[in-house]
Amino acid sequence: MAEGGQQQPLRLQEVANLAAIGVPQHALTFATLRVQSDRYIVIRNVQENQLIMVDMAKPSQPTRRQMAADQATMHPNQDLIALKTGTSLQLFDLEKQQQKKQVQVMENVVFMSWISENTLGIVTETAVYHWSAKDATEPVKMFDRHDNLKGSQIISYKADSSEQWLALGGILSSSDGSVKGAVQLFSVEKRMSQALESHAFCFKTVKMEGFDTILFAFASKSKSSGTSKLHVIEIGHESKPETAPKFGRKSSDIFYPPELGGQDFPVALISHPASTLIYMFTKAGYLQIFDVESATAVYMNRISDSTVFAQCPHMATKGVLGVNRRGAVLVASINETAFIPYVMSKLKDVGLACRLASRNGFPGAEGLFEQQFNELFSEGKYHDAAIVAAESPAGFLRGIDTIERFRSLPQPPPGEPSALLVYFQALLQRGQLNEIESLELAYMVVQQGKSHLLEKWIREDKLFATEQLGDLVKQGNPVMGLAVYIKASAHAKVVQCMIETGQSNKVVAYAQKVGLQLDAQQIVQLASNISPQAALELANNMSRAIIPQSKSAIAQKIAEEAQQMFDMFMARGMLNEATAYCLDNLKEDAPEYSNLQTKVLEANLMNAPQVADMILNQDVWHQYQKQKIGMLCERQGLFQHALENYSDLEDIKRVITQTHVLNPAWLINFFGTLNPEHGVECLDALTKSNARGNLQLCVMIAAKYTEQFGARKLMDIFGAMKVQEALYLYLGAIVNFSDDPEVHFKYVEISCQINQFSEAERVTRESNYYDPERMKTFLMATKPKDPRPLINV
After folding, report:
1. CA-CA distance, 291 to 277, in Å (whole number)?
2. DSSP label at 343?
3. 523-527, 637-641, 728-732, 752-756: which range is least confident on average?
């Protein structure tokens, strides 16, 4: 409790302790522990070559894996982990226990961070790359690092929600013990960077009068002046409409307790998607909270006796999660019932309290809003009063009572809007109306004969969809009324409106889509009151949907009719129409369609290969004669489809060497469809067709399917290649994940042969799988220039 019995505005809880579950002290550092979200904490125990993953849903049950990774970071929302080992980067699916992507990098990777659901940011000593997790593409270079980051330890890389603004941050220790912070802010659209002096930063998107506004907050501490400030600026404002409000620039001083002797500084800024507050952690363990819209300091307290060096938003509490050097996992969150009273009593800033309550839905300022609303209303300032109601916490003023107060006002002079319309216009400028407001506004504009305004607001998603709103809109525009019914899930009204608007043929499909059980007799009777033709069409459609029939009989009948139609179109030289007809009518992929599928594909492969390519890409037909179609695909250069259809090994080996046109990612996955014996033979053929050109692809295939194909067989293949580093690259891709002694021995052997002594030294030092006596005998016999491998053994 605070002074006078007042509750504290911040809740602090230790939700786990990593030291208590066996995480050693030396692993509790920024270099070895990563937190990308409140789902997982990932720790690298370097001394034991161990990766520790702590699921925060069950923190007392960590998962440990023997893995010598240089870096590891978990996806924020998926069981997908990014790993760096030597020159290899990979994305590993923990749920499926398989590698999703892998790439060899030539530059030294110093930092990795997930910046969005699909993008991993990769920072090297010279540049920044983005690697997509949703496809097979390789990392894409985004920008070169700015000179202001030269020599810095990279501690943060973030992006705004659109990934059009990127920021890279680092720190550099000076000889006098001070720490300098540097940030590079990069615009993807303009391809331009701005260098900033800052220790911590974050992006935040807020609504300003209904417009999305991207803010960039950064905290700095100047070495020369000793001053420390938080700055908040708007970025990307030039892409907003001219009528949109501009944020400008806000800043405020950052306070540090004097007993720290000026040694404290910001280490992280965290924004939460559900709050307009930003959280700043300092080196001395303090947490400071700021209002991002004004850069005003709202609260400060020491939450840890050591640095909270890893942080992220905590979604459940709308707060933040952090880990300190003792291994304590802390969650700090706003005590919503006490926060606004604290701001008003301690900061004496009513405007700030009202804004925080409005933006975040915090209770405690209702009386202020109601008082301000009543004063403005009594003064005739109806627009201003409407804005207060629109921004009231949790919309508590936006009810039928407020609407009635505006409605009861005298009518204005001709040509001027009513007070009620002024109220609704103010609400519309700030977003979507609630259910009551939407209906009241709809009643008003329909009575005034301005139904077209409803259509505009519905397209802009300004009105809350209900069945009653659909009834009103339908009076002026039945099609738009149907759209409202669908959005409101008013299924009975949707069916009725479809019949009335001549869309009876869509009723059954809609009912099946939403799981609606139709009473056939009632629906047909309803339709007969509107249109006899619609009733007949609906009866036929429902009969087909309800009466059970033999699938085989239906398919046979469709095949016969489609064959006749196909022959008719082809006799007239109308290949496009013949193909379109078959695609529309052979959707079930039944065995009865085999002959016609073959004819359609054959005709297109000989006359319009691009159409055949499109059909095969859709992957909807599988009954055609695959060997015949495979041969035609090969003749037309459609090698991927040829491989998909061939089953004879010699055919596959002949086509698989066409790597200059085959998609590498697809080819890698194709190897997974082969039985192990065929896979080894095909990989051997690939290494022999263009040894150097296919080397990287062969290494990726072999690394992915080592377990299926067998490491010994694969070592023979790569060892037989005329490219000296072939075996080295293959073994380097698997040695960290293999427990085969032969793999570890051969990797050291080939590393020594090609003078890669650092790798030989690393494996002899880190590996527990090779035969020490055999390794010792080999190293003593070869006498490598670098004695460290022998010393390790």
Report:
1. 5
2. I
3. 523-527
Q: What element of type H or E holds 730? A: helix 726-734
Task: Give yes or no for a contact between 280 and 219, defined as CB atoms under 8 angstroms apart.
Answer: yes
Mean pLDDT of 729-736: 91
Q: With contact defined as beta carbons under 8 Å apart, do 45 and 766 qualify? A: no
What are the pLDDT digits (tens) for 551-589?
A: 676 777 777 767 877 876 787 677 888 888 788 878 788
What's the distance, Cα to Cα, between the start and end of the chain in Å? 61
Q: What is the three-class DSSP state of 520? A: helix
Report the pLDDT value the prediction gives residue 3, as an integer from 0 to 100. 46
The residues, any chain, with a CB within 8 Å of residue 8's CB and separated by 6 or more, are: 1, 2, 335, 338, 342
SS3 at position 449: coil
Beta bridge partners of 214: 205, 235
Phi/psi at 81 (5° precision): -120, 135
Among the listed residues 711, 698, 788, 714, the one whose alpha carbon sits nearest the alpha carbon of residue 752: 788
Q: Tell me what percent of the chain is helix, strand and coil, each rounded to the nearest 5.
A: 45, 25, 35
Taking only the tens place, the pLDDT of each residue in 392-401 is 888 889 999 9
Amino acid at 93: D
pTM: 0.59
What span, in angstroms and rounded, lies between the C-alpha atoms of 149 and 170? 6
Ranges of beta strands (E only) in 383-530 are none
From 260, 273, 337, select the one nearest 300 (Cα to Cα). 260
| Beta bridge partner(s), residue 112 | 122
CA distances from 333 to 98, 256, 284, 355 (A): 37, 21, 19, 19
pLDDT-derived band at 542 (thresholds 50, 70, 90) equals low
Q: How far apart are CA 475 and CA 465, in angstroms?
A: 15
Residue keyed to tokens 């209904």: 210
